[in-house]
Structures are given as structure tokens and as C-alpha cells.
């Protein structure tokens, strides 16, 4: 069993390790995760294995039909589009509110600096600071309900990001540059412009992933850098 650090329950530790293996692509979409095999591999009781699997089903990283073995989510193009559209609705309004206050979260700046520092690293390494950047913006509102709503999407958003980076669909430099532009627009109080840049930023990832999953890419896939967006009222 891999080393699992930190003071956590056995169920949480097994859940966390399985989640990491899914997000890094070690466990591929469609791969089965049976309670017996998980119990043996992690040397835990079968109820513990079952609980860990149920956690990942609840996070929508695994899917399981009645009386069937759970399998790693096999996402289709419309699943990906729905996840990206939903997060865009939340994040666009967050940007408008932050811009109204000219509130630039320090944690978002730190996350983006981490992305810049990963130039030349494994593309999947970008996923954690990328998600941290977007989550920092949401959490900066200090709204428990907004953060909770975003958290309900978090596992699926990270799964999408992992798919994007695993296929090397977006370079770190482009992601970091567009993040930087978002922060500049927040600081300038230009919420509508920030929301438009976000639309381009998320739309490009959405359509490139949809194509990767077997769909037909929309025009957003070929969008120029959002730093070049011309805003018209």
C-alpha cells in the first residue's frame, strides 16, 4: 500500500489515494474498482473499501449501476460541456463581485505563480495550482454557500482539468497569462471584461476536451489568447 501521510481515517486515506490515481490517469476511464480488489490491495476491511468507493461515486469520479462493479467515470462530450458551463456561471458572477470591490486574492496570485514555475514540468502538475487559482477566487467572496456550491463541482472540474492536461491540450504559459489578465481586470474594477475573458478561457478548454472525448469542437476551441479579447458593450 502506498504511504499515506497525515492524521486521517483509513477510509479517507484510501479514498484520497484512489482519487489521486484516477486524476493522474493511473486508473483509466472505464477501469473497474471492485470492493474485494481494493480491500486486498490496501490491506483494509471490505466495509472500508466499500466506503472509499462510495465516496468516489458520490464525488462522481466513479460510476456504478445497480449490482455492478464501480468503474472510473467515462466522460462524454456533453458531460464535459455541462461541467464547464456550470462552473462558468458561478465564476463569472464571482469575478464581477470581486471587481466591484477591486479585491484580488493573494492566494490566487500565489497559485498563478506556481503555474508559471511549472514551465517544462509534467502537464498534469498544472492541475493542482490551476484549480487552486479558481477556487481562491470563489473563496475570496467569503460566502459559505457559494464556496459550498463550487465544492460540489470540484471533483468533476479537477477530473476535466486532468483530462485536458493529460492530453496536453493547453500550455501552462497560456493558462498563466490569462489568469494574470483576470487578476488585472479585477484590480481595475472591470468585472464584465473579466467575465468575458473567463468565457474565452473556459470555453477553449471545454471545446478542446469535448473534441478529445469524441465530439465536434466548437469555435471556442480555436479562440486566440483571452488577453486579446476586444470587449464591446
UniProtKB/TrEMBL annotation:
Domain of life assignment: Bacteria
GO molecular function, one term: DNA binding
Ranges of residues in domain HTH gntR-type: 8-75
Pfam families documented for this protein: FCD, GntR
The organism's taxonomic lineage, starting at the top: Bacteria, Bacillati, Actinomycetota, Actinomycetes, Micrococcales
SMART domains: FCD (SM00895), HTH_GNTR (SM00345)
Keyword Transcription regulation carried by entry: yes
Protein name as annotated: DNA-binding GntR family transcriptional regulator
Keywords: DNA-binding, Transcription, Transcription regulation
Transmembrane portions of the chain: none
Amino acid at each position: 500500500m502506498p504511504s499515506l501521510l497525515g492524521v486521517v481515517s483509513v477510509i479517507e486515506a484510501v479514498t484520497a489515494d484512489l482519487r489521486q490515481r484516477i486524476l493522474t490517469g493511473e486508473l483509466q476511464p472505464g477501469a473497474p474498482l471492485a470492493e474485494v480488489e481494493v480491500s486486498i490491495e490496501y490491506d483494509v476491511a471490505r466495509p472500508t473499501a466499500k466506503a472509499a468507493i462510495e465516496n468516489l461515486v458520490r464525488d462522481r469520479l466513479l460510476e456504478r449501476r445497480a449490482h455492478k462493479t464501480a468503474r472510473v467515470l467515462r466522460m462524454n462530450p456533453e458531460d464535459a460541456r455541462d461541467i464547464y458551463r456550470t462552473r462558468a456561471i458561478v465564476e463569472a458572477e464571482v469575478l464581477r463581485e470581486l471587481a466591484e470591490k477591486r479585491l484580488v486574492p493573494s492566494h490566487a496570485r500565489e497559485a498563478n505563480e506556481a503555474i508559471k514555475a511549472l514551465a517544462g514540468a509534467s502537464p498534469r502538475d498544472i492541475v493542482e495550482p490551476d484549480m487552486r487559482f479558481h477556487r481562491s477566487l470563489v473563496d475570496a467572496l467569503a460566502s459559505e454557500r457559494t464556496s459550498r456550491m463550487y465544492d460540489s463541482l470540484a471533483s468533476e472540474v479537477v477530473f476535466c482539468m486532468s483530462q485536458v492536461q493529460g492530453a496536453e491540450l493547453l500550455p501552462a504559459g497560456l493558462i498563466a497569462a490569462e489568469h494574470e489578465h483576470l487578476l488585472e481586470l479585477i484590480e481595475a474594477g472591470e468585472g464584465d471584461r473579466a467575465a468575458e475573458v473567463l468565457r474565452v478561457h473556459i470555453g477553449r478548454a471545454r471545446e478542446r476536451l469535448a473534441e478529445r472525448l469524441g465530439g465536434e469542437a466548437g469555435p471556442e476551441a480555436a479562440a486566440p489568447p483571452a488577453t486579446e479579447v476586444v470587449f464591446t458593450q
